[in-house]
Structures are given as C-alpha cells and as structure tokens.
Amino acid sequence: MVRVSFILFAFILVPASVVLSQNVQKEDYILLYKDIAVKEMNQYHIPASITLAQGILESASGNSTLARKANNHFGIKCHKGWTGPSMRMDDDEANECFRKYSDPYESFNDHSVFLSTRDRYAFLFDLEITDYKGWANGLKKRAMLPTQNIRNY
Known about the structure:
It contains 7 helices and 2 strands, in the order αααααββαα. It is mainly alpha-helical. The relative contact order is 0.13. The longest helix is centred in the first third of the chain and has 19 residues, at 26-44. β1 and β2 form a beta hairpin. It has a two-stranded antiparallel ribbon. The chain has helices at residues 2-13, 16-19, 26-44, 48-59, 65-70, 104-117, 132-143; strands spanning 86-89, 96-99.
C-alpha cells in the first residue's frame, strides 16, 4: 500500500515534460493534454481534437526529441520575428531553428496563436468548431502548398 501511494504521489509531482521523456502512448498523451486543448478551443475556436491530433502527429505523442527537449509539440519553427528561446536540429534542411518553450502549455498556446493569426489558415475559422473533418482536410491542403509560400512566416 505504501509503495502504491508513493508511486501515485510521485506521479502527481512529476511535471508532464518529465513524464513525456518516456514512451507515451496516444491515449496517455490525450489524457495529459486534453484540458489544455479544450481551453485553447474555447479561446481560439480551434477544435480540441484537431489540436490533440496535430500534437500527436507532430511530436510522436510527445516522444520526439523536439517535444522532450524543447516542449515543442507542433514542430513550429522560429520563423521571421521569433525572439524567444530556440533549439537547432535537422528537419527539411540542416540545422533549422525551432521554437523552444518552458512548458507544453506554451507550445499549445503558441500553436493556437500561430493558426489564428496566419492568413493562410483564416478560411478554417469559417468552419464550425465541430467540423473536425473540414479542419483536418483544410490543414492537409495547406500543408501541401509549396514551401516557398510559407517561408515568410
């Protein structure tokens, strides 16, 4: 009984970023971040399911190096005008600059701000918040644009 209590106590005190240094499954990722995704949905009108799905895909359910070392769950690069902390790693090109966050919440919030302030995603906000299929198809469509059209962001 003492051992179980200690394990539960330790788990409660361990920040999500430490938990994510292990092999997190999709279901656990959803449980860890669903409240943040719902909060962001209420503020920015991006479906929580879309935010969670993107986080799962971009960060391998929080297991990627970028998520573990930079709390960056969405693969957001530094882009023009970024003055915050960063981390360099190879992606489409060698030694690319990625945003680094102090905690996962900052990453989720920046993802919401990123989508809601870019003209290329504006059409998504005409969709109902319940139209997760429309959002998914719209994001997929934008991802297939030539990269030279998005390097300015």
